[in-house]
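Next comes a single protein record:
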Amino acid sequence: MAASDGAARKGLQEIDDVLDDLDVLLKNADVADALSARGVNISLALTAAYGLRAYLHGDKAAAIEDLATAVEEIAARAGTSKA
């Protein structure tokens, strides 16, 4: 079991590392410019990423708040409702 626990911890750390990389990329000016040209709002992308991180950490309340905010704002900007 100990090896399994170690592998699980390593896997979770790798997920955190990927999400850290995503955070850095989304804050990179060149990436932000490229995404903005596609109509992507960087603040909303970061909020969605924070929601995903919270969910993967088991913090469902924070995940719900962040992901709901992202969905509501994306839908409002797209002129649609989430219903």
